[in-house]
Structure formats: structure tokens, C-alpha cells
Specification:
By secondary structure, the protein is an alpha+beta fold. It has 3 helices and 5 strands. Strands 1-2-3-4-5 form a 5-stranded mixed sheet. 25% of the residues are buried.
């Protein structure tokens, strides 16, 4: 049996996946792979692959979350033979007492600007 925090995290990943699917956005829930994790979910929009690190925690560690997302986006790019020019790490953080669409999406400004040059 998994721990309560693992179940909570898994439920959050499923909620994000379902949110995208309900809006006809193709999404893939990635398998866990230990040290070579490739993010929790992946979404492709306009030929850009967004590697999502899903977080459902009480305490926020934005630098840690972003570092994890960036590392896993690198693994994703390597595994899928994609250039980092088309892979973007993002973190989706559960917002307490709100629905999935009201979650926080966190990305470094430099990554965001790559899509808006």
C-alpha cells in the first residue's frame, strides 16, 4: 500500500491529466523511473513539449520544484530525442480549496520567454 502523500500526489496528477483531456488537449502521464524520472505528465502544444512536475504539498519550495522540473525535462528530451529548444519544464502546484483550473503554474521567466520571442 502506498503512503498517503503518494496517493495525494497521484490523485493530483490524475486531476491535471483529466483537466487537459476535458479540454481536448492531448496529455500523457509518465511512468516513474527513479533517478531518471521524465516528469509526471507531458503535454504537446504547438510543437512544444511541456514536461509537468505536479505538486500537491502544503509547503512551497519553488527553487527545488523548478530544479526538479528542469532536470526531468532534460531526461524527457534525452529519452524522446528532442532538443531542449522544444521541451519546457513547468510545475503545476495544487491550490488548496480550489479546482484544478485554479492551480498555480510556475515556470522560470527565461523558459517562458523562449515561447514568446
Amino acid at each position: 500500500m502506498s503512503s498517503p502523500s503518494k496517493r495525494k500526489g497521484s490523485a493530483w496528477e490524475v486531476a491535471i491529466r483529466d483537466y487537459f483531456l476535458d479540454r481536448s488537449v492531448p496529455v500523457h502521464r509518465n511512468p516513474t523511473n527513479g533517478a531518471f524520472d521524465i516528469g509526471d505528465l507531458a503535454v504537446e502544444i504547438d510543437s512544444v513539449h511541456y514536461v509537468i512536475e505536479a505538486k500537491a504539498t502544503k509547503s512551497l519550495d519553488l527553487p527545488g520544484f523548478l530544479l526538479e522540473a528542469e532536470k526531468e525535462a532534460g531526461h524527457y528530451a534525452e529519452l524522446h530525442r528532442k532538443s531542449l529548444d522544444v521541451v519546457r519544464p513547468i510545475v503545476v502546484i495544487k491550490r488548496r480549496s480550489h479546482g484544478t483550473g485554479r492551480a498555480y503554474l510556475v515556470q522560470e521567466l527565461d523558459w517562458w520567454l523562449r515561447d514568446h520571442d
